[in-house]
Predict the structure.
Amino acid sequence: MDSCCQNHFQKSATFVRCPVCHQKGKSVQIITIKALLHPQALETIDPESNYAFCSNSFCEVVYFNGVQFYGKDSLKVLVYQKDDALDVPVCYCFGWTRKRLIQAIRSSQNPVEFIREHVLANRCGCEVNNPQGSCCLGNVTKFIQSIDKGSSG
Ligand SMILES: [Zn+2]
């Protein structure tokens, strides 16, 4: 009876909330989880279930479904949304860390154009590189806007 109820919960939920912070998660493909979890965590996943990504920077949880959750220590990479260090990638596919973005902006380059060019050429692999499992361009744009605000004063 328990497994029946769990299956019903997972299939009927169009979104699920993070078990720790209760913020709405974004669903991620199972390939993202398979690519980025440490082996020990990977050994415990349920490939049939739907996992979601918690983007709340104040929450330790990265992936969750209705039954399990995985914190940032379960991943092989630093998670942009969960770690504000300068060496954390914003664009995982093409290696744009916060530090590299700041340096590019200060030397009047446009990293967004550079990244977009590669995305349009279908060179990106966000689903296996980026913990959020989707394109980084929104994060890059927001981060650059935050640098502009920070440095103009
Ligand atoms: Zn959370």
Summary: The chain has a mean pLDDT of 89. The longest helix spans residues 137-152. The pocket of zinc ion is lined by residues 18, 20-21, 23, 54, 56, 59, 61 (CB under 6 Å).
